[in-house]
């Protein structure tokens, strides 16, 4: 009999969004006449930009002829896309070596897979509340997790505590679920802490395109010293509507060098490369062709129009909470609005209340950690019509 990975027994029975889908499916089965509006999972609703569609078609056509056909591509991604990503960073004043960029099928996979290149006896620091993949993927390896508290009092932006030592630190900014964004000074505090502790920051920048204030850093590499202590994950899911198309990238600077227990110098870039070349065969050529169009002037302009649409939805949501005197966070540099559940309800109780009485689906804060017990998340990724209708229903209900 094989020894199974019993760490899985320490996970919650199902992944957050699986549990939500299950409850919604049950409700719709029993109330087939009701129109349910989903503002739960952060899934986009706008179609892909037209020049991304054109590039995808070109990718398909290339596969139809022997002269342009592509088989296995480089596991790290095609040079044309790695270069385009590096130029995108440059346009925000951040210099990144294309050789440090690894193209993938999204940030969810990479933030989960990165556990492969670190040992199991590290102290992992994870903010609470946060995107559940960081916690679950470390529980799967049986690792010790230390939580740092994001609360209304610190604006859901916890800062390092010098009395706690950590080896790996997860940061998501703009934050999922709270929408809070670290400023330069706060991120510098994290970089200084990581350098002092010889720790690595695992920085999730999946929502960077929602930042409209040029003073707010869109990348950890905007902070001096970060290349010696950080890995960054990003995704086209939210930037360009690739949730179903799947493309992302991870930046592992060659400056990230640590000592192995036998004294050898180890490059995390080389380790990640070794991991990817063994376990991953690269993102499909067609998808990478489409992704490269995102980074053209026209493609980016089209993507930003969609982001403006989602941010307008977020504003519509925030306005109702402001009018109702409900304390909320986010929604400005983020598609997410994080608010306090009314009347002291806990977040799953409020989930059921909202589903049963307004037929609106959101995400219970408890799914993102203990500190989310009395909070709830709505997303601006719905259609305008559904967002307006959902908020009219919520306004009447609360
Ligand atoms: C979310 O709703 O938190 C995100 O859509 C999840 C994800 O990006 O995987």
TrEMBL record:
Location of the Aminotransferase class I/classII large domain: 34-394
Catalytic activity: (2S,6S)-2,6-diaminopimelate + 2-oxoglutarate = (S)-2,3,4,5-tetrahydrodipicolinate + L-glutamate + H2O + H(+)
Chain positions with N6-(pyridoxal phosphate)lysine modification: 238
Entry keyword Transferase: yes
Molecular function terms from GO: L,L-diaminopimelate aminotransferase activity; pyridoxal phosphate binding
InterPro entries named in the record: Aminotransferase_I/II_large, DapL/ALD1, PyrdxlP-dep_Trfase, PyrdxlP-dep_Trfase_major, PyrdxlP-dep_Trfase_small
Record-listed substrate binding positions: 15, 42, 108, 131, 176, 281, 377
Pfam family, one: Aminotran_1_2
Quaternary structure and partners: Homodimer.
Function: Involved in the synthesis of meso-diaminopimelate (m-DAP or DL-DAP), required for both lysine and peptidoglycan biosynthesis. Catalyzes the direct conversion of tetrahydrodipicolinate to LL-diaminopimelate.
Family matches, as NCBIfam families: DAPAT_plant
HAMAP family per record: DapL_aminotrans_1
Protein name: LL-diaminopimelate aminotransferase
Source organism per UniProt: Candidatus Scybalocola faecigallinarum
Designated gene of the protein: dapL
């Amino acid at each position: 009999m094989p020894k199974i990975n019993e760490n899985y027994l320490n996970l919650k029975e199902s992944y957050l969004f699986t549990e939500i889908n299950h409850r919604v499916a049950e409700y719709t089965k029993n109330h087939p006449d009701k129109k349910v509006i989903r503002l739960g999972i952060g899934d986009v609703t706008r179609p892909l930009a037209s020049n991304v569609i054109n590039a995808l078609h070109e990718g398909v056509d290339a596969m139809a002829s022997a002269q342009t056909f592509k088989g296995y591509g480089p596991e790290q991604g095609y040079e044309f896309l790695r270069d385009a990503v590096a130029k995108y960073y440059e346009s925000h004043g951040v210099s990144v070596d294309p050789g440090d960029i690894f193209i993938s099928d999204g940030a969810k996979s990479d933030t989960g897979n990165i556990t492969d290149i670190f040992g199991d006896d590290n102290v992992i620091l994870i903010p609470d509340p946060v995107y559940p993949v960081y916690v679950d993927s470390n529980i799967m390896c049986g690792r010790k997790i230390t939580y740092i508290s994001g609360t209304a009092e610190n604006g859901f932006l916890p800062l390092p505590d010098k009395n706690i030592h950590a080896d790996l630190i997860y940061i998501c900014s703009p934050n999922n679920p709270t929408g809070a964004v670290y400023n330069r000074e706060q991120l510098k505090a994290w970089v200084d802490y990581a350098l002092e502790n010889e720790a690595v920051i695992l920085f999730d920048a999946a929502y960077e395109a929602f930042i409209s204030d040029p003073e707010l850093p869109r990348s950890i590499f905007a902070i001096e010293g970060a290349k010696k202590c950080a890995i960054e994950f990003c995704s086209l899911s939210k930037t360009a509507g690739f949730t179903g198309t799947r493309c992302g990238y991870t930046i592992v600077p060659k400056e990230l060098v640590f000592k192995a227990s036998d004294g050898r110098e180890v490059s995390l870039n080389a380790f990640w490369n070794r991991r990817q070349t063994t376990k991953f065969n690269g993102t499909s050529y067609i998808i990478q062709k489409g992704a490269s169009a995102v980074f053209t002037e026209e493609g980016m302009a089209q993507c930003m129009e969609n982001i403006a649409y989602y941010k307008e939805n977020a504003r519509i949501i925030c306005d109702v909470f402001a009018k109702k005197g409900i304390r909320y966070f986010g929604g400005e540099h983020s598609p997410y609005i994080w608010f306090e559940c009314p009347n002291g309800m806990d977040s799953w109780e409020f989930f059921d209340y909202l589903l049963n009485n307004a037929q609106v689906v959101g995400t219970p804060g408890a799914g993102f950690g203990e500190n989310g017990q009395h909070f709830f998340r709505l997303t601006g990724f719905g259609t305008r019509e559904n967002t307006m209708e959902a908020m009219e229903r919520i306004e009447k209900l609360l």
